[in-house]
Amino acid sequence: MSTHDLNEDGAVKHRHRQEGPQKHVIAFIFSIILTLIAFAAVAAGGVNTAFTVILLLVMAILQVLIQLGYWMHMKDKGHMIPILFMAGGFFVAGLAIIAALYWMWW
Question: Which residue spans traverse the membrane (predicted)?
Fold first, then answer.
């Protein structure tokens, strides 16, 4: 450690690593690939409908995770409170959907 890595009071400086565009480009390409797979599954026509719906749901979940992680920076430190609030919102929304389906088919 050199002397320029220390603050005025002698404590070690913590440098913020800047994220390069490489990870964003990879995330963008992965998002495009997921979108193309979803379009191809729907455009194929001869694919089982249940399989297509499940595939689209999986692609949507992966897209959401990529969007939150790389574009909304939820993978970085200090974002636990927004993540907890979003998880709580997904939980409440899931309960509402389950309750609505149960109510309709009961």
Answer: 25-44, 50-71, 83-105
Q: How far is CA 90 from CA 43, 64, 65, in A?
A: 30, 12, 13
Quick one: 64 and 84 in the same domain? no
Instruction: Spell 11-21 as b/e; 16+ CB within 10 A means b.
Output: eeeeeeeeeee
- Identify whether residues 84 and 64 lie together within a single domain: no
Model pLDDT for residues 60-93, shown as the tens digit of each residue: 989 988 888 777 777 777 778 888 888 899 999 9
pTM for this model (two decimals): 0.60
Provide the 8-state DSSP code for 6: B
Angle between helices 49-66 and 21-44 (to 10 degrees): 170
Residues of the domain holding 36: 3-75
